[in-house]
Amino acid sequence: PITIPASVTSIEGGAFFNVNKVTTITFAPGSNLQSIGAGAFEDMGQLTSIAIPAGVTSIGNGAFKSTWNLSSISVDPGNQNYRAIDGVLFDKNITNLIQYPAKKSDASYSIPASVTSISDGAFMGAYLPNGLTIPASVTSIGPSVFRYTGFPVLFLGDTAPTVAGGAFSDLRTSAKAFVRKNASGFGTPGTRWNGIQLGSFNTVSFNSKGGSTVASQDFIVIEGIAGNITEPASPTRDCSTFAGWSETDGGSAVEFPYIPGVDSDITHHAKWNLIPCIGTPGATPNSKVVNIPAGVAEATIPATDALPAIKLNLAGVTGQAVVTVAPISNPDPANSPFSAGVSTKVVDISVTGITGKVTVCLDGGAGDSLFHFTAGAWVALPERSYVNGQVCGVTSSFSPFTAAIPAKTPAEIAAEIAAAELASRTISAKQKYPLRSLANQAGIKIVSPKAKVTTTIAGSSKKVCTKSGSTLKTLVAGNCVVTYTVQEPKQTIKTSKSLAVGDVGSGSAWSAKSNYSMNAVASANGISRSAKGKLSMTVAKSSKGICSKSGSNLKMLKAGTCNVTFTVDEPKPAATKVTKTFVVK
Hints:
The chain is mainly beta. The chain has three helices and 49 strands. The model has no long low-confidence stretch (mean pLDDT 87).
């Protein structure tokens, strides 16, 4: 190792030329070095790394030529004239590539798009088996830049750069240059340009079909051998999920790395699976329209100044839903069954294209009910629930809806709910009750009639109640605390789904002439299972010619309706424990 004293201000040209026993050169703290002359470290065969001090303002041509073991160059962050990026030396503005370390271990390297020139000997002796990409910005290449190399060089520019003499001298036979078709100044592919064998490459472009912009990428096609390209970033589009790239519009998705099979420019087309979106503007002011593909169970429209947040659950319905929502005035304010003085948002909801009941959820409080206006009157939906800040109701009759406080106050409603819950747990003294019936009465979920249900009585309740076989015997008034353990048996659940097959652009959920995994189709249609659950699938005979099962895949053949039955076999699930306090009177 050599340490340069802090007092040194310049290293003259050729100062360490052919010094072969030095592996590292360091600069003393507080170095005042300002200049490094041309060829200063040239031919230092054992030098592995060097750190350039902050004060260096000039580096001469070929300062690091023939440093065969150099693997990294670093520059003090305070230097105002030079910088290193991943061990490669540039000027401060990254317009001149000064030195690529010959021993750097990259398989390939792409020069930054800001670089306009490559200095003397910059890649001399380097090893890049998968090639070097030179951007269109590079207009000049210095002498000896590629001397003693053998890797492919890919020029992205449409015009050949200026090349100094000897830039491609002493090349290995594996060295080749690839240029764009019809690029000027290089010559004809198959000939030699500046002494290097010349070939051509093509460009693959990506048609995102309405998604975000995706830049074209380049690949090499020469003498029947194609180079790989990396999968581009997936584009995004409202109301859709990206399903991959296809060689043809609507064809099967290709896998990356992609190797083209023809010697021509290629366009890949984006494939999309449609999903519910937040809503596109409707024909009337402040309205929204949402298209919901068949098999999609839920769609959400966020709140706006004019509309409440709306969630629609379409589990169990058939067909592709088109939902239009718009704010309207209360059609019957004089006879509204709401608390006086309460301002509510009324929304007109229209759902077409489906059969079956839909769960509608609107913003509301725990004491609110969901009303819709039908047959000239406001009617509360009977199947009401309150979930995560929304009041929900089940309906197949669509008309104006609102979530509002009914004539009863929230406190009154809450008291009624509490009283009903207490009533479900109130039993009489000196009686016998089947324990399983009490579980149902108290709302404990038991799915299968074959479920194993066991019970224990809390020690604190021994004077109030006791267990006798499968019955509960009550003794005196008080609290009887019972813990239920429910062990469900193995379950087999069959679910039939109708899948709309057609051109993606028409709004269908599944594309014709495409393959989908059974798991993906099941997931998209709301079929869930545990980690140990076994999923199987059958295709109805009525769907022959529309779709077919192939192993664990579903192949969509042509436009139409594909009827599929999914079967989920679940092993014995984990037991659940629920404790209920029965009030004995």
